[in-house]
């Protein structure tokens, strides 16, 4: 892990860009911390860190105000990272199905999401290794955001993650629905009820499948990107309850 | 409205029992209030006030800590109030269907719930008239609880109610689902996901139907009566956001 730039934000939060091998990432730490901070990994959709930056930094600053360090990495195939022909094909198939008004088949969803999960999850785990070796970062660790299938897999395979806020809004392969039964950590799932691009029933099925004894679904209005402020506050309270 | 008894609880909350014509009720007001308090009407299932008292007083005390007065009345046919033969018949039909493992028909649900809503709603409105005439009670007014169909009808017909927390967990007639489209006040709906006696899909359909621009569904684990403490806190925050 190599830090490549560093700046203080208005509120004193320290923002550092880094690379982990080929993968760019960003780490935010609270303005002042007397002890190693608990960490929240900030998941995000496959739109690239640059485009997601405004929303990510807002989440990082809210988390820092609650005493959390946050970090994110570029997803495979996003931003300036190389594209895979097979994934390009899956995206083209998806576009064709949606433009034709056809249901999106399980095959398309699998081809689109499963390779992404398979590659992204070990990358998040490598980032976690590096982040937890920093003296200013302690534990426990949470995961917050989408791609929801990445969050599910991480919750299953990564014992250092002890609570997760999962954002619905992307396709969920059948295999991930099955993996969800193995999740046991506390979960807080955000669903934008009127998100037209989201398969609401798939989210409800996924929520039902989770094996966790504490799981909460918060459904709100406001469209895909319109998560209300009070819903963000509730997610922050969830992490404060479980990671502090 | 006649007060029939009065006591101070441990935390200084003033609890007064009253009758409104034939209908018994309870009013709780905060220990100290400098201005007329906003009011939350505490809805509850048809188990009778006496049986519901422990849960009601806990909700009243939490609300009082947030500066709210709360009040509740006995529902028609509950507690010591007279039974109706038609409703007894509907309950017997329901028991028979459930014991036989048959689906509960729309006819049974209508016969069970609609007469209750038709009678209870004007009673809540009469209680509201009386409560708002007390100098220590101001506005705005919220409704909190079940029977969810009573809450829906009140939200439609009673303009003095400006926000509602609705507890899923009772049958919802088709006609109430239609009325739900006319609801426009902010709503916070609580669903116990693993409540076996509740028709989860009916609650999701009802939530979908509400016309409100701000509506939130909180689904949690813990069975019918096991609403987690943090979910109660979130409902309290909803009222603080809308009624203070």
Describe the model.
The structure is a homodimer of 244-residue chains. The first copy, chain A, has 244 residues and is of the alpha/beta class. Chain A has a single domain (2-81, 117-243), classed as 3-Layer(aba) Sandwich (Rossmann fold). Helix content of chain A is 41%, strand content 25%. Chain A is built from 7 helices and 9 strands, in the order ββββαβααβαβαβαβα. Chain A has helices at 49-65, 85-99, 106-132, 148-157, 174-180, 200-209, 229-243, and strands at 2-8, 14-20, 23-29, 37-42, 69-73, 137-145, 161-167, 187-192, 215-220. The first copy, chain A, has a 9-stranded mixed β-sheet, with helices on both faces. Chain A is globular. The two termini of chain A are 26 Å apart. The interface between A and B is medium-sized, with 21 and 20 residues. Strand 9 of chain A pairs antiparallel with strand 9 of chain B.
Biggest beta sheet summary of chain A: 9 strands, mixed
Q: Decide which structural class fits the backbone of chain A.
A: alpha/beta
CATH class of chain A: Alpha Beta
Indicate the CATH architecture of chain A: 3-Layer(aba) Sandwich
CATH topology of chain A: Rossmann fold
Helix content of chain A: 40-55%
C-alpha Rg of chain A (nearest Å): 17 Å
The domain tally of chain A reads 1
* Oligomeric assembly: homodimer
The pLDDT mean of chain A sits at 95
Taken as a percent bin, the fraction of beta residues of chain A is: 15-25%
Kindly report the greatest chain-chain contact and the residue count on each side: A-B, 21 and 20 residues
């Amino acid at each position: 892990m190599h830090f490549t730039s560093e700046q203080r934000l208005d509120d004193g939060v320290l923002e550092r860009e880094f690379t982990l091998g080929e993968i760019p990432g960003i780490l935010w730490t609270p303005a002042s911390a007397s002890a190693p901070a608990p960490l929240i990994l900030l998941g995000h959709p496959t739109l690239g860190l640059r485009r997601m930056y405004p929303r990510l930094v807002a989440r990082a600053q809210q988390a820092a105000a609650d005493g959390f360090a946050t970090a994110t990495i570029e997803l495979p195939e996003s931003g300036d990272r190389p594209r895979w022909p097979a994934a390009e094909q899956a995206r083209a198939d998806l576009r064709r199905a949606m433009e034709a008004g056809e249901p999106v088949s399980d095959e398309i969803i699998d081809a689109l999401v499963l390779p992404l999960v398979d590659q992204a999850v070990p990358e998040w785990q490598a980032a976690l290794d590096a982040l937890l070796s920093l003296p200013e970062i302690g534990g426990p660790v949470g995961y917050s955001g989408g791609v929801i299938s990445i969050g599910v897999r991480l919750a299953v395979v990564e014992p250092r993650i002890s609570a997760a806020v999962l954002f619905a809004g992307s396709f969920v392969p059948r295999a991930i629905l099955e993996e969800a039964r193995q999740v046991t950590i506390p979960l807080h799932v955000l669903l934008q009820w009127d998100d037209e691009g989201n398969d609401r029933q798939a989210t409800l099925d996924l929520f039902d499948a989770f094996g966790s004894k504490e799981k909460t679904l918060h459904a709100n209005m406001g469209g895909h990107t319109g998560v209300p402020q009070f819903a963000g506050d509730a997610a922050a309270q969830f992490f404060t309850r479980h990671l502090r």
